[in-house]
Amino acid sequence: MKDAALFDTIAAAICAHPRFSESRGYIQHGKVSVYEHSLEVARLSFSMGELFKIADMKSLVRAALLHDFFCYDWHRPEKMWSLHGWTHPVVAAENGRTEFNISDKEASLIRTHMWPYTLLHPPKYREGWIICLADKVCSLSETVCRWRKPKLCIPVKE
Questions:
Q1: 147 to each of 23, 38, 76, 143, how far by Cα in Å?
Q2: Mean pLDDT per 10-residue run, the chain (158 residues)?
């Protein structure tokens, strides 16, 4: 990540928000919290955005941070056998609108991050493809290396 200061500036308000901070208490994959996962996806997305010269880094980072902002523990028995995989992108986008007044583009980036799992909803924007790929890379790493936390999980300056 070349411009860590820009990343921190964009991410700070979301990372400091009480509802987003609650995600520290929800496990995403292995021993990694939803908060840590979201931060890692945002960091990787930002680095890829720099590589591919994405102009709208603000939307990229905000949507990457909020891509799993579903605000519940999906490991609870009543959620584990639900349609969480298909429905959580819509829930996360709605929560993003409510808590952070995200744009239509940011909502689209969040709603499409599970492609190809959500086969009929591929990303419309380059930023969406980046978040989709970054989420897959981070999820795979967290799932394969379940016994440890990723070393890249460093809290953003709040």
A1: 20, 19, 20, 9
A2: 92 95 83 91 97 97 94 58 67 94 97 87 95 94 68 46
